[in-house]
Amino acid sequence: MGVKGLTSFIDDNPVLLQDFKLSNCKVILDGNNFIHFVYQNYNESHQYDGDYHNYYRKIVQLFNSLKQCNVEAIVIFDGGYDVSDSKLRTTLDRAERRVIQASNNCSLLPIMAGKAFRKALDQLDVFHVTCSFEADEEIAILANQWNCPVISNDSDFFVYNLKAGFLPLNYVDFRPKKLSARVRYISAQKYHFDHYDHILDNFQPEMIPLIATVLGNDFIKYDTFSVFTQKFNRQKYKIKSASNAVSKITAILNYFDQFKTFEEGRNAITKDFVTSGGVASLQHVIDQSLNSYMKIDSKKSIVADVVKNTCDWKKITQNDYFNQPLPQWFIHSLFQGEISPLVQNMAVLHRVFLPCQQEQITQQSSHKLTMFIRQVLYGVLFQGSSKVKETKNGRKRKSNRNTQVEEVDRSAKSIGHFYIDPRENLTNHGRLPSLSEVGSLSENQKCSIMIHTLGVAESFVSKFSPVDQLLMCVLSYWVSNSNVSLIQLEAIVLTIIFLKMRCLDQNNEEVKQKLGMSNLFHNNVQSIDEVSDRLPIEVLHSYAQYQSCLLFTLLLNELLQSPFQEPILWQVYDGAVAYHFNKCLVLRHAGCPDKEDILKTIEKYPKLVKLYKYITQTIMNDAKTRPKKLTKSEKRKAKSAMDNLNNFTGFITKLGYMLVILVAVFVAYSLKNLNTFRN
To answer: What parts of the sequence cross the membrane (predicted)?
Structure first.
């Protein structure tokens, strides 16, 4: 992310960072960076994938620390990918790396971490906004307008000339410290352009964006300026005990320090390309890059208007893939974080990156299970604007994004590109609405789309309270469309009950007494938090499928303006808790229960046991009433049997024709002989 090698260069030059006390001020947080940072740096365990409950606790802890120091945080998130596909190469590389990490059992950010983070901010009343596309420039513009620092780990912020400076996330200690009896602060290291005076004699602020451009970033290939930069790879520039990248950047920085003006520096770059040609196109690349870094004080920010609540939404437009305007309610929901950037990519690019999970690499991607849900999503986005597939010689034309959505998903140990047809109609519902029609649908019509997509009956939905209906529908879809064992389902149901009870206000004794569980969690929480065994890979894969079911159901619900109440993630799923229950159930089934079997405690509370059995049995009964979906092997056998039947039928038909002809010949011959006999 950002400029290659620049973070390492800053780390090796601590004089560019100075002590800073963050207190009594505004600060802008790079939302996408914080999603990763909190999960990777504050989570005790990553091996179970989807530890949303613990993740939520750490988010609360971090923002409470900011609040104690009277720091007002505004969180800004990236939107969808740019329509120019300028970062497509970078995004594909990241998708490949994520698959490699999954193959090597490395920690991965759970696929709903972003959704959990935003919901936590809503609950904490922390203001957040999602940009149309990349957030970096919007963050920099707003930071200079408000004269407040930025916190991120994105090295692009070393390149922006931020008035109040930049606080690299890895150098921020979020544990509040006392400045006085009433004042607390957060200790950090601040980077500022003024600090370059310590290492350079003739520092020109414009030179930093120029150097960042020749080094390459997410939008510029690292070898674009190799004709210029390769001379700084020589051994004479190598600094002892420093990496090659740091040595190279140091040499380039010292080289540019000799120039008194920005134009001199730019000419020094382009003159090396005169003999190789392409100077004009290179000037265009430089100008584009510099414009994004250097014009932050003259550009207007839409996000600033959104933050100040002065935004004229009618003036904000965005087009879909076919260059048709998206509805205003949809655009507004994107900015508010009510609709995911994943859905934005589906609508604007007809391309979506399906995030690889910790799963069984030898099996199909966990997202294959939810293709039908996505086809309904695509159907709403395509309806009324998609082009009808043309055929030629009875065959479909080559797959493309005019008629399909390109899904980038895991394929074995790499990534593959799959073109998926949108659905136009939904069984038992009828024609799907277009995006512009969604706002005029009744709640019943929206609910109908949801329940028929998930294949449940209204009678099933009505058995649960409104807050749990969508979650139960997801469970039913998961069980009915995969090889989920009863133990795996029971473990998820127990996880839901456990987390919901655990999230109850600890002071609300009345509620806990009514449930008959006043001391249930006090003695058992720690044993679950300290689980260290690795989850069996087949169980991990099954739970990855469950997370995929939950994610894409929530996205469809968002697109339909939330006809069902959305479950709170940290109250319904946590990988460590699910594993603990799964382990307890497996050991019980084997006749050797675990000594820390929390089920023994739950069994002391009849109301919880009754609830657990009711949910499990209801879902299993619903799954049994659905038509069984054939596996690939079963489909091949069925096709083979049908082919044999068709061949046999064809043979019988031909034999019938032959018999008819023989009978006709026999009759004709008999009549002829009869006439001869009469004569």
So the answer is: 645-669
